Amino acid sequence: MMSDGALSQDEIDALLSGVDSSSMAGLAPAATMAAPVSANFDMGALERFYSGTTNALSGNLTALIGSSVTLVGPKVSASNRDNFLGQLPAMVTVITANYTSGFPGEHIFILPEETSRAIAGLMNHEENIQLDDMAMSVIGEAVSQMVGTQITALTDKTGNKSIAAASPAAANVPKATAALPAGDFAVMSYNIDLGDGQSHQMWEILGSNAGDISAGLNGRAAAPAGGGNAMGMGGNMGMGGNMGMGMNMGGGMQGMNMGGMGMGMPMGPTNVQAVQFPNLAQPRLGPHEAGNIGLIMDVSMEMTVELGRTRKLIKEILGMGEGTIIELDKLAGEPVDILVNHKLIAKGEVVVIDENFGVRVTEIVSPMERINDMGYN
After folding, report:
1. Helix, strand, coil percent values for the chain (each to nearest 5)
2. Which string of DSSP letters, residue by residue, matches 117-159?
3. In terms of CB atoms within 10 Å, which end of the chain has fewer, N or C?
4. What gap in Å lies between CA 202 and CA 54, rounded to an integer?
């Protein structure tokens, strides 16, 4: 069918956002058919694995948001840029958390703008929140918690102990400008119940590493990049099977793997050994870094201990006198808040030291809790 010259919705979105649609791969003319999609990965293996993580992910989001969150799914499918953009609303939040090792490749989360706004608003205890840098940071932290849970489960399932991902980076953009993997990729589609009576969606995308991950989930090691092994002699010899004559010279000529000598006859299981990592140690600061820190060591900061808070009407405050009892928002025996420059950093318990009050630190507040408390201060 010939094109009638009309612009597609994706091209219109690109023009509105100031993007040259001619430079964007995958934006098809209005009258052309979307490119066919072929799945080079095991959709069933991905769906079974990621479905098994949804309870843990729901728990992560519930803890971060402070209200009950239920994640349902995912439904796994193969897609490409043309087909996938057609499923998205005009504005989306793209959170990139690519795998850097273990199963290196693209790993992207996409949320409709309204879903991002709902999640950030609940986490910051703020209505009608703007999707600014702070909101994107909050969304990125939520995805970071989810990715950490997935990596732990993926490590346990595949035995690959080198899986790691980059820190998530979030941005709210027109869908036509979203950076998606080239070619065909795996899409995991979730439904999210945030307890607000609205239906929310989330998509998780795996790029070129989808096949490696599904192979690992099925108990098959992914082929090394470039083919071959330490001596570069591995490869398919075109004789109906792999010659696999790679000789591992690392252990004093031990372990000459002749697996699969062209007759389809396996020579025994592959010897897989866990990588032993050294213990982590605190890095030592060089003279330059230590000198920089030394410049601020004498800076004074106000530290206060807060027993609690309350709100009163002006007429109640004006009516206060000696003997008035003010009820605070904390229960007796609850930890008190320790603040530096009016920002919560720790919690503690009140003690008496030589007839003076003091406070014993019992808990250091995590960075995520500090973000959540910004709406409180």
Report:
1. 30, 20, 50
2. HHHHHHHHT-SS---SHHHHHHHHHHHHHHHHHHHHHHHHHH-
3. N
4. 12
**8 A C-beta contact, residue 97 and residue 105:** no
**Rounded to whole angstroms, how far apart are CA atoms 371 and 139?**
11
Nearest to 303 by CA among 248, 249, 255, 340: 340
Spatial separation of the C-alpha atoms in residues 360 and 348, rounded to whole Å: 5
Structure tokens at 241: 């099977």
156 torsion bin: left (phi>0), alpha (psi -120 to 50), beta (else): alpha
Instruction: Count helices and strands (H / E) in the chain.
Output: 10, 12
What pTM does this model have? 0.54
Q: What sign has the CA pseudo-torsion 47, 211, 147, 90? A: negative
- Counting beta carbons within 10 angstroms of the beta carbon of residue 5, is it exposed (0 to 12), middle (13 to 18) or buried (19 or more)? exposed
Count other Cβ atoms within 10 Å, centred on residue 169. Answer: 14
Euclidean distance between CA atoms 11 and 75, whole angstroms: 28
Task: Name the residue type at position 238.
Answer: G
Q: Helix (H, G, I), strand (E, B), or coil: what is residue 80?
A: coil
Q: What tens-digit pLDDT sequence spans the chain (377 residues)?
A: 444 555 565 555 555 554 444 444 444 444 445 567 777 899 999 999 999 999 999 988 888 888 889 999 999 999 999 999 999 999 999 999 999 999 999 999 999 999 999 999 888 888 888 899 988 998 998 999 999 999 999 999 999 999 999 999 999 999 999 999 999 999 999 999 988 888 899 999 999 999 999 999 998 765 444 444 433 334 443 344 444 444 444 444 444 444 444 444 445 555 555 555 555 555 555 555 555 666 777 788 888 888 888 888 898 888 888 888 888 887 877 888 888 888 888 889 888 887 788 888 888 887 766 666 655 44
Instruction: With residue 108 as reference, give the H or E element that holds it.
Output: strand 107-112
Q: What is the 3-state secondary structure (H, E, C) of 165-200?
A: ECCCEEEEEEHHHCCCCCCCEEEEEEEEECCCCCCE
**What stretch of H or E contains 48?**
helix 43-51
For 371, phi then psi, to 5°, come to -65, -45
